[in-house]
Amino acid sequence: MTMKSLVFWVMSCGALALVGCGPKEAPSVKVGLNVELTGDIPAVGASARNAAELLAAQVNAAGGVNVGGGKLPLRLVIGDNANKAEQAAAVTQRLIAQDNVVAMIGPDASACAIPASEIAESLKCPMISPWSTNPKTTLSAADGSPKDYVFRACFTDTFQAGVLAKFVRNNLNAQTAAVLYDVASEAPNGQAVLFRETFEKAGGKIVAFETFTTGDRGFSAQLTKIKAANPDVIFLPMYYTDVPLVAQQARRLGITAPLIGSDAWSSPEIIKLGGEELEGSYFCNHYSTQIATQEAKKFMEDYRAKYGQDPDDVAALTYDALGLLVEAIQSAGRLDRTAVRDALANIPQFEGVTGAMRFQPGSGDPIKSAVILQIKDGKFQWVANATP
Amino acid sequence: MAYFAQQSVNAISLGFLYALIGLGYTMVYGVLTMINFAHGDLFMLGAFVCLLLVTFSPVALPFPVLLVLVMAIIGGLGVLIERLAYRPLRQAPRVSAVITALGCGLVISNVTLSISPYSRAMPEVFDDRYFNVLGVGVSLLQLLIIGVSLALMVGLDVLIYRTRFGMALRAVAFDAKTVPLMGISVNRIISLTFLIGTGLGGAAGMLYGMAFPVISASMGVLVGWKAFIAAVIGGIGNIRGAVLGGFILGTVEIFSVAMLPSTYRDLISYSLLLVILIFKPYGILGRAPNVKV
Questions:
Q1: Which of A24, B102, B172, B181 is least crowded, fewest Cβ atoms below 10 Å from its Cβ?
Q2: CB contact under 8 A, A218 and B218
Q3: Cβ pair B119:A221 closer than 8 A
Q4: Inter-residue contact A34 to A91 (CB < 8 Å)
Q5: Using CA atoms, how far apart are residues A272 and A274, in angstroms rounded to an integer?
Q6: Do A217 and B219 touch (CB under 8 A)?
């Protein structure tokens, strides 16, 4: 046997041994976490993991999850979807089929959550996306009817676009608006189209509707066009890593119109990357640290104590999503996916960090409110509340 | 009119960046007939090396010093990759070398990703200013990028067509088997090619990071592909072709957005480029290879 083939055999046997003999697991409540730890929006995945681990630690410190009288520890199985649709789908498969989780939290980005939701639905495993706002996540791709096993902890883009359109029409008195968005990304795409619809319905006029593709850094051609159209406001539904580049290039071209954003802006990273060009911009968000309820204040303190930073909306929503799930498991009283799904759909009222919510009958979308924030002095400042 | 002028300025700035990145692909291809797919990732690393130098340097480094350092570091890395990964495969089938290049690129981007999963803000390397000339916005940075790119391109052209090294390089590109008989070290020429080619890629990455100051481990992928396409359109292996291809791609991209709905940008740009390739299969300035019987 040559050296090379010897090495090959040793390594193959080693690999087989790793697969073959996992230790026997102690009983626990296994929950999958399918999040964006790497890729374009790693801050989203980090917040989600932090919040989920915080809640799991709190639940376990109190003895665990109460399942039919006995207490079981809550165990998170974390998978990285890299903010890629195909990887999100693969992670979903693995969590549900191999790791045998009772339910899955995530993915957060709609581009990942939509394909993942199709798999969760077909495998009949409850899934709660903390942050995916695209209507398609909870709707069946085949016929547009609501999915049975897919829920979300956030409001939808339909609601968000309506809130923003109303806000710029009424509070900012905008007659005209321009839109620039990432046509290749699911959530921004939906937000752009829904904003156009509601803004026009409210009597406004869209003077430019421009797109780019994920990965683009230069937006000068589109922005020059927008400048020529001279809008009152510019709506930029895109993720927080793109916004600073657009803002900077817009200001350089001499565009002074206020910039308006969606909840995809809400990571504090946006201020580190952007800075002064973003001053005065408005965006829609899930909650504000400034108008916190009792639950929210406690969560913020715990989060700050553990991680040394303020929780962003992804953290808050993940905390709520997992909180909803734990409550559903306890009221179902057994680790059965269908029973947990039924319990989740029938939670009468959940007092979450991001406000009170309950699921609409026959749908995975919650009824809850939104806030409008402004970037001012390098901070997110609360401006207004918006209720459905 | 101001609109047209502004879009022209946009097109020229973008064209210079594509051209500068495309040069690295075309130089390596010209000499080795191998596509260095790690180039886009070395380009990305150029921006990160600049960030590291600015962050950790005890004294504020002026722009020219930074540029030279970044070029030297990235160029050196290019030479190292060639020595360790490509040279052992020089006699192997081309496909193996291309796959190795893709692998090197993936290693570079994933190492960067594991060190810096977050996008980073590029620090200001120099004090930027904006001018408004008759309604057309131009920044000092844009002018600097154009100036530096132009200087690097002219320098490269002189190096290749007017010096002994350039003559040797062209000789290796023409017939690598006969060149050693003339007493020229092929390995040295190839190492120098990588030093210059990837060094230019590093410079392009640094300038790109300054122009679009949010940098991330994946920033080299899309722009690397585009620059590669630009080099192919111009005629891969041909230095002036890479510059021409970069300008054509930049202009078509900007003006398709300027005149049509921006959603069609990539469709229009790449359809047009396909049409060019149908009529000029070796690129605009490229020539069919000499088939030796």
A1: A24
A2: no
A3: no
A4: yes
A5: 6
A6: yes
CATH fold, domain B2-279, is ABC transporter involved in vitamin B12 uptake, BtuC (1.10.3470)
Domain membership flag for residue A3: no
User: How far is A212 from chain B, CA to nearest CA, in Å?
Assistant: 7
Determine the Cα–Cα distance for residues B86 and B100; give it in Å rounded to an integer. Answer: 7
Q: List, in sequence order, the alpha helices (H) in chain B.
A: 2-32, 39-56, 63-81, 94-115, 140-162, 164-174, 186-211, 219-234, 239-259, 265-279
Residues A149 and A194 in one domain: no
Residue A377 placed within a domain: no
B117, B119, B258: residue with CB nearest A221: B258
- What is the residue whose two structure tokens read 């350039």? B166
Query: Is there a contact between A241 and B130 if contact means CB atoms under 8 Å apart?
Result: no
| CATH number of the domain to which A173 belongs | 3.40.50.2300
ipTM: 0.82
Q: Domain check: are A172 and A252 in the same one?
A: yes
Q: How many CB atoms are closer than 10 A to CB B107?
A: 14
Interface of B with A in 108-147 (CB under 8 A): 113, 117-121, 130, 132, 137, 139
CB-closest option in B10, B263, B265 to A220: B10
Question: How far is B121 from A245, CA to CA, in rounded Å?
Answer: 10
Q: How far is CA B122 from the centre of its chain?
A: 20
Q: Whole-angstrom Cα distance, residue A311 to residue B137?
A: 39
Interface of A with B in 201-240 (CB under 8 A): 209-213, 215-218, 220-222, 224-225, 227-228
Domain extent at residue A248: 158-285
CB of A193 within 8 Å of a chain B CB? The answer is: no
pLDDT along chain A (388 residues), means of 10: 56 52 73 91 91 96 91 95 94 95 93 94 95 90 90 91 91 93 86 92 92 88 92 93 91 90 88 86 89 87 93 92 95 93 93 89 90 91 84
